[in-house]
Amino acid sequence: MALELPGSQRRATGLVDVLDRILDKGLVVAGDIKVSLAEVELLTIRIRLIVCSLDKAREIGLDWWRYDRELSPGTSGRRGVAEHDELRAQIRRLEQRLDALAPRGGAKRRRR
């Protein structure tokens, strides 16, 4: 016994299948836009677009969004955390050196 779907449901299922395939395999769109006047190139715009799932992106080596603070606020990635900790330690060492150089009875340096 076959189940017949109305037209809109068949199209939705077809769209889901297409999106599933695109996200699974990936889709690359590449193009160049060149603006010229009297055979003199004035402007070139290169467009590269990759549409795929996050798993597929990681598989092909694209994971820059994991370390971009603008795209993932609150997480700075493994490299960012280590760098942040090292900078804090360096600031502490510099503050200790400044305190050691400061005259003894003088005003204390203001902390932020």
Quick gist of this model?
The chain has 112 residues and is of the alpha+beta class.
| Helix/strand structural class | alpha+beta
* Tertiary shape: elongated
Poorly predicted runs of 5 or more residues: none
Mean pLDDT: 76
Kindly report how far apart the N and C termini lie.
Answer: 75 Å
Radius of gyration: 28 Å
The fraction of residues assigned to DSSP E strands is 15-25%
Can you count the beta strands? 2
Share of helical residues? 40-55%
User: Total number of helical segments?
Assistant: 3
Largest sheet: 2 strands, antiparallel
Strands side by side in the biggest sheet: 1-2
Provide an overview of this structure.
The protein has a two-stranded antiparallel sheet. The longest helix has 25 residues, at 77-101. It has helices at residues 7-25, 54-59, 77-101, and strands at residues 27-37, 40-51. It is built from 3 helices and 2 strands. The protein has a domain at 20-62. It is of the alpha+beta class.
